[in-house]
Amino acid sequence: MTNNDFSDQALAFLWDQVGPVATGPVTTTISPTPEPSSYRKPGLFHPLVPSYDIKLANVQLPKNFKWGVASSAFQVEGAAKDEGKGPSIWDLLSHRVPNQVADNTTGDVVAEHYYLYKQDFARLKSLGIPSFSPSISWPRIFPFGKGPVNEAGVEHYDDVIAELVKNGIIPVVTLFHWDTPLALFNEYGAWTDRQIVDDYFNYAKFVIERYDQYVDTWFTINEPQYCNWQYSYYPAGKYYPAYNGVTGGVKSRFLCGHYTLLAHAKVAKWYHEEFKGRGRISFKNSGNYYEPNTTSQADQIAAQRNYDFAIGWFGGPWTDGDYPPSLKDTLGDLLPEYSAAEKALIKGSCDFYAIDGYSSYYAFEVSGGVEACASNQSNPNFPECAGSASKDPDGFPIGPASDPAVSWLYDTPTGIRRFLKHITTVLFPSVPDIIVTEFGFAEPFESQLTNKNEILWDLRRADYYQHYLDNILASIVYDKVNVTGAYAWAIFDNIEWGSGLSVRFGLHIPETEPNGFCYILPGQIKASMHLPADPPPDHQEKDGNLPTPFTSDHPATSTSRSSNTQSISAHSPLGILSQTASGPSGTANTNTTIPASSNKRRRSLSESPEDSESSESTTTGGRPSQHRSKRRRGADGTMRLDAEASNRSQSPSQSYSNGSSRSPGPRTSLGKIANGNPHGKTESNGSAASYTNGNSVSNGRPLPTTFFGHDREEVTRILIQSLTDLGYHGAAGALCQESGYELEGPTVAAFRNAVLQGEWAEAEALLFGTHRYDDGGGVGLADGDGGYGKAHGKSIKHSWSPPRHTGGLTLAEGANENEMKFWMRQQKYLELLEGRDLGAALMVLRQELTPLHQDVGRLHALSSLMMCQSAEDLKYQAQWDGAAGESRNLLLSELSKSISPSVMIPEHRLAVLLDEVKDGWISNCLYHNTAASPSLYVDHSCERDDFPLKTVLELRHHKDEVWFLRFSHDGTKLATTSKDGTVVIYDTTTFKVLHILAEHESGVCYVAWSPDDTKLISCAQAQENSARVWDTKTGLCLFTISEFTYAVSSAAWAPNGQTFVIGSQDIQLGLGLWNLQGEKIYEWKEDSLRVHDLAISPDGQRLVVLLEQRIFVYDFVTREKLCEWALEDVKLTSINISRNSHHMLISMNDNKIRLMDIDTGEVLQSFSGQKQTEFIIRSAFGGANENFVVSGSEDSRVYIWRTNGHLVEALDAHHGCVNAVAWHPRDPRVFASAGDDHRVRMYGISNYFT
């Protein structure tokens, strides 16, 4: 399935999969504090770790040698959910899979590099670090992996690059470091599907185009070998859908590698051949040096196979573009094949070789030999069929071990020299030069140390760096290997994937809170930071090394010599729940230049309600931290299975109980109570026939049966419910005890319990009445044959009492009994599918749901769920949260609306009544123009003086009639059009003219702002008959569409900002979809399609088109026509769609304006008084919460109504016709009108400009 839903609701659904996200103390970009002039370092009593090769004492690295530190976005940035970022697979895995990360930590906060990068770069500059190699977060740029760009994320990286350049630090950028957007796993399985190649290409293309002038070295992929020891262990089918039967293991590993290399190659080809990039491009390999354990041929083959299945797997750029023969021979059909064109694409796609070379091993033949292993897929050593060990042949360890949490890492400095030579002379002789893109060491048990004196002397790490650098230099000097760079891992202590925060690769002491989050970068530098070897030229005066996270992305495959069993380093499966929401959103403009480095960006969108005090920065130029309040976004996680499944989501959603904003089926009007009882005896006020509910005695004195004219029992029971809703359970119990009234009778309570416990036969019997409790219940869910027991952790089921007669509960008038049964049996069916009892589920579908003769489309949707491969897949496909979620509560909420209110009080009744009171106040208050809820303490009224009724400004820049005007979406600009052929754009703060667009040769009748307000479409009348697209920042015309032979009447942008619809009076080109290249990509075909006006709903689901006497409604996603309404004796002139995408406002001749339902065409309200007989007069929604309708008129006035039809004012406005009106989208105190008198009038309150 293809995802086209990029709405805020869809993003919230993705974060719901992840779960709660922690917020760090810093929530806005921090300006750097001054760095110290010098740093403390080892002194008199202990020397630094020396170089062991005295011959190289005076030899320096080559002048063009690049060196610095590296990091990755997920591991150091934090701000996991802030500023529009989407979740990555690692957000999901680290939150949802217990112990997937050894210490159960996440990347939510870590080093907070997202907000502290300025301080971090100041530190690098002060230390003399000339280069920094970060990665860019794919889901921070594209929250869904594709679709709209997250402007805030782009602005962040704009500033990161600008800040690096400002500090003289060379950026060397990795485009992808394992943080695949979660949305792509949900949509098609990510790296196991070919679609990932194009989605990754589009992301990489966007980033490179934006930053290539500042970046001369690009890495497309970090360590594609992760497809083995990480990706193949992802829990597909458990925490997100498994597509094409790929759930992990060898198949997943090699599909991932296949598409990863193709993605790299596609980007590299484009970079050089089309984009003509200024720099170089490659990808970072993960590999280790292998020394044969003996001189035997078998051990030499083992060494080669270790290479083949690691770096040889991705060696195609340096060979023929294909896999090594050993992989093909061993894997057979498990290994995807490259076509000849794909091999040609891969071959030569790297400009240099990049290796993350951390360690070395001995290689040996596996037990039984390579042939026996390679022919047996169940062999534990398959498919490598080669062993590796971390001990010398005589049993001594190959070098000092690092922290046990990264057991694959040993300090083996001579191995890096041998490895560099082996790569460039044996494995891939065509390599022109090679960069060591990562190397680093985790000091053993450092995370457990609390004494800083112990931490500062990190001798093993210091030894590692000194001797690895010695051997890199030796490789250049002695072996003549063209090593052109080296990058130490890493800039901060960070989340080291499966090892979490428990291991430290950093070169600074991290200051941490008890939860392990790294808050500041202190000034205390470890001994490993001060190597005595001479630094490269131009940096000899600096102590050149690194700041801190804790990583190493390179688990090595190591086989124990005693067991001959292959062990994979600590990278294991992870996962998460699935929910959904829908509705597209706008896209950000992607064609802006990099801004200057700024001190602040807007704050996080995930702030907590309270503020806390700021942490003080260290006296040595540490990372300052501040506590800022955060707000968190909510999400709708409901199920949609009925015929509305393809419809847009309700926006804004209606708030219901139990955490849901949507019911499981269509609503029924339940306002009346049934007269009489179709089931015989029923409960009264929730009681059985013999059940007494309440009394009228207090303190021994009788109480009246009414309370200020209201029924005492009703008031009391509503108060009991409300006290419970408020959380005052003790008070509710006390009121029950004193009044003698209960909230509901025992049968209602039993029914509620049956639904919440999933006792569907009992629930139906209690609700509808029966002589047998299993009547209509069908297949059960209880333990035993055909059931699946208590799998959901609900409370213990009550035993089933013997059969007895019950008359059922009284239903509300108009309740549909079959529909209620359908809802319950649908839930039952889904729970059986969730428990994987497919046979019982099929019986429910055939024997219980189908005979109810409900919507066939809903039945088809339900039957398709039989194909789901797992419970998680079911939840995702059904958009349902399972029996253990809120689905039963949601079902109960919906069923309660069909039960008589006298039996089961509707939920939150007092709150509903209070809302009705406030709504009544507001509807009767002509001038209510605020979104704030009125106080209950006093009756509500608004003053006329607080309503925008006065002309506060006239704009006189047009020379002829002004026909149209529209505010930008953010309200900062106003565009007006005129018969004089011009479009004027104003700044709405000062109302100064920003641009006069004067290239049209005819009158301009319409404009449409792009979703991000960076572009504007203008539509011209005859004789020009064209549409132009403008850049609103520069005022330049980007392109003109001039294929029309009749007037262009209207235009509307798609929410993604990449396409737009143009309407015309030209019957050959009446309605078409165009892209930003000025190309028509779709055309709607209808007879005599002369478009007068059109609009796209804000949720992106509907396109509404006005012809002279007909209204067409299309599904904008599928292009299918949904509805058509013909209106006689009128001429339709304009349309506006409400912000919630439910309603449309249609102006028409003669003198009519109608508010209509967008899906049914039902007329909800009519507005009268204005004059419209000959000309195009436009109306609009406006005011706070769109509570008003405003229209121009041929009688020179502006008419304002409340949406209930009450006329508020008729204002004298212009001389001649008032052609159009527009209400400010952000400030309800302002609106504007356009008239025949060449003027634009601004309306506000008296002191608006004071």
What can you tell me about this protein's structure?
- Residues 512-523, 532-693 and 771-805 have low confidence and may be disordered.
- This protein is 24% helix and 18% strand.
- The protein contains 27 helices and 46 strands.
- Strand 33 and strand 34 (1110-1115) form a beta hairpin.
- Strands 1, 2, 3, 4, 5, 6, 7, 8, 9 and 10 form a ten-stranded mixed sheet that branches. It has a four-stranded antiparallel sheet with strand order 19-46-45-44, with no helix packed on it.
- The chain starts with 7 loop residues before the first helix and ends in a 6-residue tail after the last strand.
- Helix 20 (746-757) packs antiparallel against helix 21 and helix 22 packs antiparallel against helix 23.
- The chain is globular and about 100 Å long.
Major β-sheet annotation: 10 strands, mixed
Low-confidence runs: 512-523, 532-693, 771-805
The total of helices stands at 27
Cα-atom radius of gyration? 35 Å
| Overall pLDDT confidence | 82
Overall shape: it is: globular
Structural class: alpha+beta
Assembly state (oligomeric): single chain
What is the helix fraction of residues, given as a range?
10-25%
How many angstroms separate the termini?
55 Å
